[in-house]
Amino acid sequence: MKAFALGLRLLWGSGRRARARLLLMALGSALGVSCLAAALTIPTIVAAYDARVTSRSVQPGKSNNAVYKEFLDPYGSRPLRRIFIARTGPGPLPVPPGVKKLPGAGEAIVSPRLGAILAANPRAAGLVPGRVIGTIAPAGLGGPDDLYAYIGTSPDELTESASLGHFGTKYAQHELLEPSTLDILRFTLGCVVLLPLVIFLSVCARLSGESRARRLAALRLVGLSVKDTLRVNAGETVVAACVGAVIGLIVYLGVNEVMARVGLPGLHWYPADGRPEGATIAVCLLGCPALAWVVGQFSARRAAQSPISVRRTGESRPPRKYGAFLLVPGLGVISSYCLLSAMGRDPSGGSASAVLVPGAVLMTGAGLVLGLAPITSWLSRRLAASSKSLPLALAMRRTEVDPGSAIRVVTGLVLLVFGASLTQGVLIELDQVSRRTAPVQEYSLPMSQLSAQQQTQMSALSGVRAHGLIAESWAADTEENLPRIQGIVATCAQLAAFTETEHGCADNRVLRIEDPTFPFDEDARLGSNFTFLLNDGRKLKATVPLDAVTVRAYQPSEFAGPSLLIPPSLLPPGTQLAGARLVLASPSDPDTVRSVLDGIGAVAPTASVEPVGIVIDSLAQLTVIRSLLVVGMVLGLVIGVAAFVVSVADRAMERRGQVAALGLLGARAGTLRVVQVVQVLLPLVVGLGAAIVAGWLAESSYLITGGGAVHWDWEGLPLLFACALGVMLAAAVASVPMVRRHIDPEHIRRD
């Protein structure tokens, strides 16, 4: 403890610069701990959401008191769950969490968000028949934006209902994220946030490493033991880390209170969900100081064991090359998967891929970090030996002498680019699973639930490319097994928008539809007559003609199966086919799909919408995953930029003596600035180039083993290159002011 206290006294008595360094170390640790708490709390928020949703899940039973039926419908792009409950006998009923009493017939209890929608949009009242008598408390909701309702009704209005048993189950139901998806999210956040975070906290613990090592070497030379010298160093790093950890937790708690009220796209949570648990607090308050202790022991060991070499700037040992060997198995595995895919083989599936690919990704990331110093040192030696430029030679010789500083400067940004590639692969894979592979997305709505004005408004929604009607022919006696046929009311342009290919279409004529990918309709014989009922009671007769239009419909599609194309001009003005369904078409990218669904919900909130080929829960899940990955990328960007800025500033301060010596020897200010810029750019170019190549290969191997249609993300490469060029340009500009030619005698070495 005496040595520990001595370190604090020396720190506090070393002037303003030492106290400023302590403050910077504490603020850097605070930023890192805030990001760490945010990353560790994301699974906690998801788990709290799932726990409340599971506790309210309706389970069937043998009770004769009530029956229920659950409905899941999209309200815009968000899922809406409604539980209709009808009492069938006397006796007590189970009560779900967040509700004091189940509603009776003609009554409803809704979530606050759904209540606000009903109050703001009177047309949405049809979603919740009955009088709203209360709202659901947070204990019965997944989050503040949950759309949920308990609706009381009579037993004769519920068909195919089940007896009401109880609420809640031991197993998770309706999870916010599927377990496999959550595992992928944890792995990605670990690569994007946690790995750069460890590097950043290590950088903060080694601020002013050279001057500190010289001070510790002086203490060792005046008689302090090795252990006491290490304890003196720990007194500074651990105290700064502890103060920073406390500040970081306080900052995170404040940010959580604000973000919980603002929310993320697709995800809103209660403030209590985002408050760190005991394990998270322990990791933040103990893990950060422990890491600072380990880094301090490692960085100060040379000063304690060989103080003469530190004081007299002895020749440093070359960086170890063992870490770079991790790139061999890592790149070997992911490159093998890429090579197999390029050869036309499909290596997806199997349990081996689930272990090999994540392991190879981790080894590749670790190899990029540990191999950066020896690679940079080797490259600097070669460039310095062959270069005839004085600034380049000076920069390369300095980088050759101290290649370890390259790790502290650029590792955070290198890992960020590497993690960005993985994030792109995760989004592409989840996007393939959660949506249609066809370029067209269809939305089917019953015409009986739409007014003429709503039909016009839906056809004009942003993103909607075309619309058409689908109806079945009418038969006078439904009990007889009479032939029936499905018809499409659309123009040739509209038909082309819904199908992959279209040939032989002619407007204003009834045509027979032929689709080679769909079985032939035996009822659609040439010359057969069919009757379609109009909404005003009149009838429209159509004959199956000889002329045909050949199409190839997407799968699945509402346009796969109908056998007759009816031109809209054949319908009397102001009429539609009875029992028809309105089908809209839009591009299938998730943003457009969400926009169209939101537009449909705003125009006709009570209409039953069927997004053909997708599940609304999957679309909502993809939104949540994107939001969380964006949060992870933002945290990784903050960490990487902070580590870079801190490291560059620290290097500039540490090398003031060397800059002063070069100035005394006659070096110009422009030369010194070029040296500083080249010293920063060389490890950046090496690291970012390796990160782009390795990250793209890792992303491709993940996509290949995922079994999706997309194996090579060519569209993401230009974005990564643009980001890397932007980072290098910003680094070069930021490095220029770090060098001043002003000669301060205090910085001149007198050994």
Count of DSSP helices? 21
Helicity level, as a percent range? 40-55%
How would you sum up the global shape?
elongated
User: What's the total number of strands?
Assistant: 18
Distance between the termini: 32 Å
Mean pLDDT: 76
Rg, rounded, reads 34 Å
Strand content: 5-15%
| SS-derived structural category | alpha+beta
Major β-sheet annotation: 9 strands, mixed
Task: Kindly report the spatial arrangement of strands forming the biggest sheet.
Answer: 11-15-12-16-10-9-17-8-18
User: Residue ranges: pLDDT <50 for 5 or more in a row?
Assistant: none
Characteristic terms for this protein:
alpha+beta; 21 helices; 18 strands; elongated; 751 residues; single chain
What would you say this structure looks like, in words?
This protein starts with a helix and ends in a 16-residue tail after the last helix. The protein has a 9-stranded mixed β-sheet, with helices on both faces. Helix 4 runs parallel beside helix 8 (278-305). The protein contains 21 helices and 18 strands. It is of the alpha+beta class and 751 residues long.
Protein topology:
Elements: H1 2-12, H2 16-55, E1 58-60, E2 66-75, E3 78-87, E4 107-110, H3 112-120, E5 131-135, E6 147-153, E7 162-167, H4 179-205, H5 209-221, H6 226-262, H7 271-274, H8 278-305, H9 307-311, H10 327-342, H11 351-370, H12 372-386, H13 390-401, H14 404-434, E8 440-446, H15 452-459, E9 466-472, E10 486-489, H16 492-498, E11 499-503, E12 511-514, E13 529-533, E14 539-543, E15 548-553, E16 564-566, E17 581-587, H17 590-603, E18 610-611, H18 616-654, H19 656-664, H20 669-706, H21 716-735
Parallel strand pairs: 3-6, 4-5, 10-16, 12-15
Antiparallel strand pairs: 1-7, 2-3, 2-7, 4-6, 8-17, 8-18, 9-10, 9-17, 11-15, 12-16, 13-14
Helix pairs in contact: 1-6, 2-4, 2-6, 2-8, 2-18, 4-8, 4-14, 4-18, 5-6, 5-8, 6-8, 10-11, 10-20, 11-14, 11-20, 12-13, 12-20, 13-20, 14-18, 14-20, 14-21, 20-21
